Amino acid sequence: MPQVNTTRLSLLFLSFVFCSLLSSAAPAQDEGEQLFLNNCAECHQRDGKGIANIYPALADSEVVRGSGVDVALVMLIGRGEMPSFSGSITFEDMADIINYVRNAWGNSGEEITAQRIANLQ
Ligand code: HEC
Predict the structure, then answer these.
(1) How far is 114 from 118, CA to CA, in rounded Å?
(2) Hey, what CATH class is 27-118 in?
(3) Per residue in 65-106, pLDDT tens?
(4) What is the pLDDT of residues 15-70, one digit of tens each?
(5) Are 94 and 121 spatial neighbours (Cβ–Cβ below 8 Å)?
(6) Is the CB of 52 under 6 A from ligand 1?
(7) Whole-prediction pTM value?
(8) Rounded to an integer, what distance in angstroms lies between the CA atom of residue 105 and that of residue 121?
(9) Is 44's C-beta closer than 6 angstroms to any atom of ligand 1?
(10) 12 to each of 1, 19, 25, 38, 90, how far by Cα in Å?
(11) What are the domain boundaries of the chain?
(12) The ligand 1 atom nearest the CA atom of 101
């Protein structure tokens, strides 16, 4: 049944193309979530609740709710056990992460731009 196989293959191919299109068009919020999962969740956990007495929660954190600049400074400089992310991720990615954590898990804060973070250097 070579014909069936070809149809299946093209369907598979089409859905692959469709999915890639969808993910490349992902809004900054999804991008921020993915970057958070890759860079921060190991310590702060994917639910933002951290681990008691080791990694502070970012959900309902005064620093995170307070201002994007304060979060950016922690990321640029590092703090205690937390490494600096300066140079290892772009200002764009930092902005996406900050805008994600400031608006996830019940947090709510205005957005910060990559330029604003670059100016803190
Ligand atoms: C290796 C573990 C680790 C990773 C990875 C990590 N952090 Fe942290 N983070 C910490 C620790 C530990 C502290 C507390 C440091 C202290 O106060 O001594 C902290 C503190 C913070 C604070 C201050 C919170 C508060 O309430 O004082 C923020 C904001 C923060 N981290 C954001 C992030 C973001 C965003 C990322 C990802 C880009 C990240 N962290 C990655 C371990 C980590």
Answers:
(1) 6
(2) mainly alpha
(3) 999 999 999 999 999 999 999 999 999 999 999 999 999 999
(4) 666 656 555 556 777 999 999 999 999 999 999 999 999 999 999 999 999 999 99
(5) no
(6) no
(7) 0.84
(8) 29
(9) yes
(10) 17, 11, 20, 28, 34
(11) 27-118
(12) 35
